Amino acid sequence: MKNTITLATAAALMLTTAMTSAQAADLRVSWWGGDARHAATQQALEVCGDIHGHNISPEFTGFDGHLERLTTQLAGRTSPDLMQVNWPWLPLFSPDGTGLADLNEFSDIIDLSQWDQALLDTGMRNGALNGLPVSITGRVLFYNADTYAEAGVEPPATWDDMIAAAETFKSELGDSYFPFSASRYNAMLLVSLYATQQTGVGFIDPETNEVNWDQATLAEAINFYQSLVDAGAIKSWETDAAMGNPGLHERGDWAAGEIGSSYEWDTTVSQIAGPWGEDHPLIPVMPPRVEGAVSDGIFRKPSMMFAISASSPNQEAAAEILNCLMLEEEGVRIMESHRGIPAAASAVALLEQEGLIDANVKAANDLVLAADTPPASPYFEDPAVRTAFEGVLEEYAYGLLSAEDAAAEIIRGTEQALRRVQ
Amino acid sequence: MGGEKQWVGLAYVAPYVIGLLVFTAIPFGASFYLSFTDYPLLSAPIWVGLQNYIELIFHDRTFHRALQVTMTYVFITVPLKLTFALAIAYVLNYKLKFIGFFRTAYYVPSILGGSVAIAVLWRYIFADIGLVNMIITGLGFEAINFFGDPRYALFTITLLRVWQFGSAMVIFLAALQSIPAHVYEAAAIDGANKAQTFFFITLPLITPVIFFNLILQMVEAFQEFNGPFIITDGTGAPLRSTYLVPLYIYDKAFRQFDMGYASAIAWILFAIIMVLTLIAFWSSRHWVYYAGDKRS
């Protein structure tokens, strides 16, 4: 009898454990990033796998080509169980909320109360929580303190200051010096920044998914881009392209300090500071404002998300690993701020308490969080929208279109792209 | 052959046949079907009939531009590459010291040529402060904006393709070596100089190989992707002056997830290659000479 009771108790315990914890599973986890993120995530996955008894295969790449790879995997129903996705990809992967698992169903495993509801809403598609935000990111101005000091110029507070700085740069440092840099995607973001500062709304309304700006507003912003080129504040599109379009940190003029500042993601400071190493001269500040600006206008968005595949047979196990990476002390300590300052309250508290947050990233992220800027639409970075915007802006920069025609063409192309992706 | 032996034979060819079906024939047929659909990759294809083709042929300015760039690229690259390959093969056909080494050395670019690393290297060589501009400015000329000026951008990717002349060169070299020595001896006795020997003996005798290389290089040039994709970050910049049709197919398929439209572009490209190949075959009756040919 005694044996029977012991067996029954053991069986009940096993059953309880099975109900609250997923069975040992073979999981695939994918992400993109640089070497530091790769090393930290692999280590964290090893630790989290040991804690929860799952065998994890990591799959990691750089950012280029990751969208194409993941989309093909999702289409072939061979996507990893747990994956890092970019926020603008959610509408592509899950237009109606069923393309990825609904994380609300795992709220007994993942403590969702650690996120602000507004932030959680950015991962919702049609009522389903498809992506859990890892952090919030945004663009700020990183200026080269050494170059500006050499020119005897303060970091510009207004765009007029930036234009004035261009003249001083040329006279004090030489014709090869520019106080700012914006070409290709950064030129598109510059135009967007200017128009958002003027209007207080982003290019695409996140509620209605319609273009917010009229032709005149966009034309004025495009003309503003050209005014910076004409004043020598930035290189022309054509001159900039002569370098062969390398990344900012790979550019000779950036490394030589000839470029005074650039409008970059807050989390990229360690990458763009590459030429100088740890003792770099880059300082994050809020970008200059246009006179009469109604907002700071910076581009702010959830930087990336973790999502669970809708076709995964091990969704609970994936949820356990997700929780471990983002909320459990062992995972959070190893992941540090390799994906930006964590959005989960308990994670950021732990990292701050233990001094594990990169001071550079924190300084830039504080600016992003404090900025007065309208919510962005995930469609702003949709490949078709980007092609419509950037391609036409290039034609304008080469003098093939007037600002008015370019504005009309961008709006027309964007509306067409939005109709298709929706 | 019958019975068991027949099955053994079939077993031997089965891997190839299965591979051909799974990786070539079925995708080939599927893409033809998909070209008549709206297929956003992550949801089921919807039949749209000829809509993709009508849009492409009559309305799509980007496609027209890409096609124009591709045609220019092919018509510059193929003759240039064949001429270059033949010239090098001709030199390497001489009995020189260390000729084996030179033949290997000239073939190396073909092995490396299409690789990602070489395309990246190309980007640095032709950059504003790259090797080529250092030489140009060193000679007292103004630097050329190879990547920013639409007049020169296509030149860089053309040169990248021409640089990969090794495989065509090896085929030419084999053809040159197959020409019997007595033909040249007869020409020499008749008093033919080197230019006459080349144009009236060598060239006519290797026309089948020129024709083979022409078709091969033309088909490959129409499918060029790696070089321009890496050098321009896939944008075909500046102003789409290097935007070849395969880049547009990739953009539509994997960046905009419009698989149906991308398939339609691929089939139009296939049709163009097919027509040009048929024209080449038709024209070959007038300039290609085979052994035993009545005209020979």
Automatic annotation (TrEMBL), chain A:
Compartments where located: Periplasm
Keyword terms of this UniProt record: Periplasm, Signal
Pfam families on file: SBP_bac_8
Chief place where the protein resides: periplasm
InterPro entries from the UniProt entry: Bact_solute-bd_prot1, SBP
PANTHER family: ABC TRANSPORTER SUBSTRATE-BINDING PROTEIN YESO-RELATED, ARABINOSE-BINDING PROTEIN-RELATED
Family: Belongs to the bacterial solute-binding protein 1 family.
The protein's name in its UniProt record: Oligogalacturonide transport system substrate-binding protein
UniProtKB/TrEMBL annotation, chain B:
Residue ranges crossing the lipid bilayer per the database entry: 7-33, 70-92, 104-122, 129-147, 153-176, 197-219, 261-282
Residue ranges occupied by any ABC transmembrane type-1 domain in the UniProt entry: 67-280
Alphabetic keyword roster: Cell membrane, Membrane, Transmembrane, Transmembrane helix, Transport
Chief location: membrane
Any GO BP annotation: transmembrane transport
Taxon lineage: Bacteria, Pseudomonadati, Pseudomonadota, Alphaproteobacteria, Hyphomicrobiales
Record's bilayer topology term: Multi-pass membrane protein
Annotated protein name in UniProt: Oligogalacturonide transport system permease protein
Compartments, as annotated in UniProt: Cell membrane
Recorded GO CC terms: plasma membrane
Family as reported in the entry's similarity comment: Belongs to the binding-protein-dependent transport system permease family.
One Pfam family per UniProt: BPD_transp_1
InterPro entries in alphabetical order: ABC_transporter_permease (IPR051393), MetI-like (IPR000515), MetI-like_sf (IPR035906)
